[in-house]
């Protein structure tokens, strides 16, 4: 295998392909780029090409290719690219459930027929090549594969309603719709819809049921898990009033109900949705019915309306979809906050506007209702263009890139060049009248034409391509990607093979190293992911992971919390379990009365119970990293609102040695009143449970002070607040208070501590933790109250927080930022914070009390800062433009200009430089331009390659990689780009450092016609010479001609390998849908010197490709000493150096004028 994979993982692929290895060519269809009806391909037979496939059938119109995958290397029996293994290693979301076709090529990009090999493939199983089937003396090549997947398709229109199912009395009628996709179930949702219909009353019966004195109806009311419900009110659908009430066992009896009657019987009770079931005859004079009641759940959005651009006169459709219990059926639509008339627009979950007018532009959102409450969607913007108004300005906007240092004008600092950019905005689709929720013909403003320029540097000419014209073209599909790693919060060890749930749907497992990759589904606003530990030692880890909706990748490190130690309980006795024991008295306790345990089917459980209660104690600051969800709930207005926690707990109840989860209830939750000191919180405290499907907290009960009827307590005993709940399917609970004093904090991230507006970094995960108020302020004895994480975009990020206008120190916060595994560094605060560095104007900066983590102790890490969350005061000009904004000013925060006040982070690893001949903003995938000299040739798949260079020398050295075309006839000798990286010292090896230098990967160029092996030249900038080359790398390059002369001992030159070689060669390759994530992961592996590890501490001796030895140049005497020893020579040197500097400045000035 390409990497050291665990034996368990190997078994997955081996088991899946067991049949494939023994299959004969006749039994399995084989081919390249072949669909489900594939065929055999023999050596010498031409293989179907991509162009052949594009001409095939209707599938090409509704499908697209995935990126390329390579999980196996030839060896043993051959090369095996199992679909099961690909889904395991790359993540299940990377390949659709039912691939239509599969294409395979060698890593040299040749078709199997071109190399004379026989292969097998099946889109539903994968690809395999068997050594025993190849011509004598030949073995299988190394292959990578890709799959053809169907695009999202939409339902057709509903057909007419059918006939009523009954000729008399109540019945139902049906209507159907069809899905035009290649698979009948390709469209989400149901193909059948039912509706009630009422026919004339049946003879001899009343409006609801027949009367039969000797007959009886026997009924049962239960939950979905079988738990009986007492006190449910039973009625007949057509008769008002209650005909029965369920008893303690959930049963009820209705005499006089005819056995032949199949009437609908309904039941309802507080806190549950109405349940309906049809009575069924159980004999000559009895009828039975079982009614299932679901607990009421507030609605939540599964599809939000999306922004659209249209021309006047075109049509537009906004779509909204909510789920909940019961399923929401009432929708309302709003335009700029005003309710739209339902009768005028005839809307439901979809809002269709025809013949658009300019006054219909603006912000749209929907609301969905059910019996439990309402939920509000996100906002969608509609732009209506006037006739003739261009959607995309053909003139590019300014976008400055930094040129190499040796291209700068002497004495003027770094030079920048405007290469232009096209705004990332939408264009109207050509038709503009699709009734579908998606926008398949969507177009975006992007690069239409590039122009070539030349920059004259000190000793060479630097080519560059600049944007000359923008225009509307087909959008690249945005694919939000989240990668990360799950580790134990107490030990840092990876959570291996944990099951991953997206909402309630399983999508895969973490790897042996705890890594995971998730492709964000379209229209997602909250990515709710649950990690379930297979060993049962860790509580279910529920996270709401921030992501970049524009398609850039984001990296997260997820902390899993170990379950509490098991406690044995006697089910026949009253049991009390403390909640929290962190250096203080418990915050409360869980009281389980005798006889409160039950099986999942509702039957009582007697015996010993193994209980594991895990408490997330906010009095421990480190526990914030492992807290579940993001502490949000849906308020009465249907909007997401924040909670302030007093603690969270998870409950695991089992019979000893059993995997069955036991239920319990009613259970009392008692909270110590002396732990709640903030005004109003004692009355507002509630008990919540977590809905793992949407990551939102839902109210279970309120709290009441223990009444006078309770036994009188002594003065020194604690007073408790008591709430009640039942432990059923949900196991995560929260003691929270809704908080209404809220603000937003503006944060930006930069490439370096120069904080240049044109060098902002996108995709940085910024986290804000609300801390305890300052000492002496009357507040709760806790360390943190809530936390939030957001991802920076092109205009920074706005983080929600609690704030106070009267007391600046009433609320404080700790803010940190990470990019991949790298911690970013905020502006300094010693000896006092400077407004120009922090980014906040005075006197607001003093009121916020900005302090970096090393303010009091320079030895501490500089990975965050604390501030007072002082709400801006109306009428104070210095506080009107950030960095703290009122809660209702979110849009003002999001759209704030870069010169408005904000807090700043910068990358610590700033000692590197990247230059691309064809400009590309890695945080904005839509900025990709198709060109033979593009560094990234494929906008759907980004392959990052790094070379590890070891340096023996007394200091750190800058290492440059010069990347040019090597074997492609159209790019040979032409520059792709430059990469500079400073070496990092090995903390355990004095005098040794290493650099991880990026180079352009070899492979197909953007036209997908021919590969290019990049000509890479690596040169340390100093007095260095090459002393060693990795033996395996040297042997590989010798076996894959043409070799490159490498006589210059001050550099290393190679034609980059096509294969992803791995750490044994000193090469680190990662392929991902996000260029930034691919690079961050590859750098982490390079630092660690392994193919599957991750480190930010350089291990210079592990996994190196080249070794250089560098020495310091001899010290030159200073000018004063030279004047004393040899005045004439010193003055001559001064005149000569001044003349050279003047000539260089003249050349540079004329060069820049020419370029302008």
**Poorly predicted residue ranges:** 1-61, 708-716, 776-781, 1148-1156
Q: Care to count the β-strands?
A: 76
Helix content: under 10%
Largest sheet: 7 strands, antiparallel
Span of the ends, CA to CA: 52 Å
How big is the Rg? 34 Å
Kindly state the mean pLDDT as a whole number?
80
**Residue fraction in strands:** 35-45%
Total helical segments? 14
Provide an overview of this structure.
- This protein has 14 helices and 76 strands.
- The strands form 19 sheets. Strands 40, 44, 45, 46, 48, 49 and 52 form a seven-stranded antiparallel β-sheet that branches.
- It is globular and about 125 Å long.
Summary tags:
single chain; 1156 residues; mainly beta; 7-stranded antiparallel sheet; 6-stranded mixed sheet; 76 strands; globular; disordered C terminus; WxxW_domain; extracellular matrix; signal; CILP-1/2_dom
Summarize the structure.
With 1156 residues, this protein is mainly β. Helices cover 10% and strands 37% of the residues.
Set down the secondary structure blueprint:
Layout (H helix, E strand, L loop, with lengths): L6 H10 L1 H5 L11 E2 L14 H5 L8 E3 L12 E5 H8 L10 E6 L5 H4 L4 E3 L3 E5 L12 E8 L19 E7 L15 E7 L12 E12 L10 E4 L7 E2 L5 E7 L6 E5 L6 E4 L1 E2 L4 E7 L4 E7 L4 E4 L4 E4 L1 E5 L4 E6 L2 E2 L2 H4 L4 E4 L8 E9 L2 E4 L3 E6 L14 E3 L13 E3 L7 E2 L15 E14 L4 E14 L6 E8 L10 E4 L2 E5 L5 E5 L8 E5 L8 E4 L8 E8 L6 E4 L4 E5 L8 E5 L4 E2 L9 E9 L15 E3 L5 E15 L8 E10 L8 H4 L1 E6 L4 E7 L1 E2 L14 E8 L4 E7 L3 E9 L14 E7 L12 E8 L5 E6 L9 E8 L2 E2 L1 E2 L8 H4 L5 H5 L2 E2 L11 E5 L15 E3 L3 H5 L8 E4 L5 E5 L25 E11 L5 E7 L10 E8 L1 E2 L6 E8 L3 E2 ...
